[in-house]
Design a protein that fits this description.
17 helices, globular, Growth Hormone, Chain: A, about 400 residues, mainly alpha
């Protein structure tokens, strides 16, 4: 693998690892800096997660446009350097407000996915681009699996240890990139910077404007909103319901990540072949509804771990929905469609942490009438049922060419 390709894969992997590293330790860290109970910590966790997502949403197009104007190399190296400093600040933070500042800066510096993809496109022949983009996806997936495991293990050495580890990883990648990353943008032919193109609300404006897919866009959005219950409250839920340690929380998240990888890499093709695209969406939603209900109501930790592969089966839903929608728009609108879908999932990740952690807090407060840590999963089940009802009523065109 070329050093530059390795650097790009390492960059997206470190982004994912950095996110996963801190998830298992967040309940304990927030309780520590706020002297708060678990329900209050969950509320602040929602604020921190939403802040991070908002910054990524707002700054991704801006950073991408800046890389078109000033080059990929400086944008990537500066972002990674800022990310390193951000992890150091998080490791030293003694107040929730400093953690909040850290999430603001972290969200901005982590908004480099578009730049990393652009660099990969720059250095790849057209026939190699799909495979190279696959490497980016694989790197992110591997980071999402490794991050929670490492974070849970390192948390045994203190709530700040995962942040120091993330800082070392990011700094090492800066040093590596400094030597292997060559600029791919010709400054003389660089694209002029435009605030209009850097405006993140531009893509949101087009939500629902593509013909024939308004219902499917709503279904796609509701899927991401419901599914985001896992990264939003899993660590708080595990601690409240099963008294899990950070290492146990990290291990359970890694198990979930592995199951998702198996579903999306290996299972999706036979399911599509057996049920077709429309049937695959319904297949995923059946398991999604059942899993949300069981997670909300089962009180056995080992049983929840057994349910993890079933929860991952919902991963077939967005793939099948994307395929159906791609049949519903013209060939020259495929790029616009993917941009709209990216905006829809990003908006879901902005909204979900606050909604899910607020629901968790409402049912786990010390004076609550009904103590029910699983409430966010019932909310996700309700959102899923709404999505199913909308999807069943959709009667648009679909090639459904994958069904035999």
């Amino acid at each position: 693998m070329r050093p530059a390709v390795l650097f790009i894969v390492a960059t997206v992997m470190i982004d994912a690892i950095g996110i996963g590293l801190i998830i298992p330790v967040m309940p304990d860290l927030i309780e520590e800096v706020r002297s708060a109970n678990l329900s209050q910590a969950a509320l602040w966790g929602g604020v921190l997660a939403t802040t991070f997502a908002v910054m990524q949403f707002l700054f991704s197009p801006l950073i991408g446009s800046l890389s078109d104007r000033f080059g990929r190399r400086p944008i990537l190296l500066v972002s990674l350097t800022v990310m390193t400093l951000d992890y150091v600040v998080m490791a030293l933070a003694g107040s929730i407000w400093l953690l909040l500042v850290g999430r603001v800066v972290g969200g901005i510096s982590a908004a480099t996915g578009a730049t990393a993809s652009a660099y990969m496109a720059d250095i790849s022949a057209p026939k190699d681009r799909a495979a190279r983009f696959g490497l980016i996806g694989a790197g992110f997936g591997a980071g999402f699996v490794l991050g929670p495991v490492a974070g849970g293990f390192l948390a045994e050495f203190g709530t700040r240890a995962p942040f120091w580890a993330a800082a070392i990883l990011a700094a090492s990648n800066v040093a590596f990139g400094w030597f292997v990353l060559k600029e791919t943008v010709d400054r003389k032919a660089a694209r002029p910077f435009s605030w209009r193109r850097a405006n993140p609300l531009g893509a949101v404006k087009h939500l629902g404007e593509l013909p024939g897919i308004k219902r499917l866009l709503l279904v796609y959005f509701l899927y991401h909103l419901a599914f985001a219950v896992y990264p939003s409250v899993w660590s708080y839920f595990g601690k409240a319901q099963f008294d899990w340690s950070p290492s146990m929380i990290g291990g359970s998240l890694a198990l979930f990540g592995c199951a998702m990888a198996v579903v999306q890499a290996g299972l999706i093709r036979p399911v599509l072949k057996r049920f077709g695209e429309r049937g695959t969406v319904l297949f995923g939603y059946v398991f999604s509804v059942v899993t949300f209900f069981l997670i909300a109501t089962v009180t056995s930790g080992p049983a929840i771990l057994i349910l993890t592969p079933m929860a991952a089966l919902a991963g077939v839903i967005p793939v099948a929905l994307q395929a159906i929608m791609s049949h519903s728009v013209a060939q020259n609108a495929q790029g616009e469609l993917q941009g709209v879908l990216t905006s829809a999932s990003a908006l879901a990740m902005v909204i979900a942490p606050l909604v899910m952690t607020s629901t968790f807090a409402a049912f786990t407060a010390p004076d609550v009438a009904v103590y029910f840590p699983g409430a966010p999963f019932l909310l996700s089940m309700l959102l899923t049922l709404i999505a199913v009802s909308v999807f069943i009523r959709w009667r648009g065109p679909s090639a459904d060419t994958t069904k035999t």
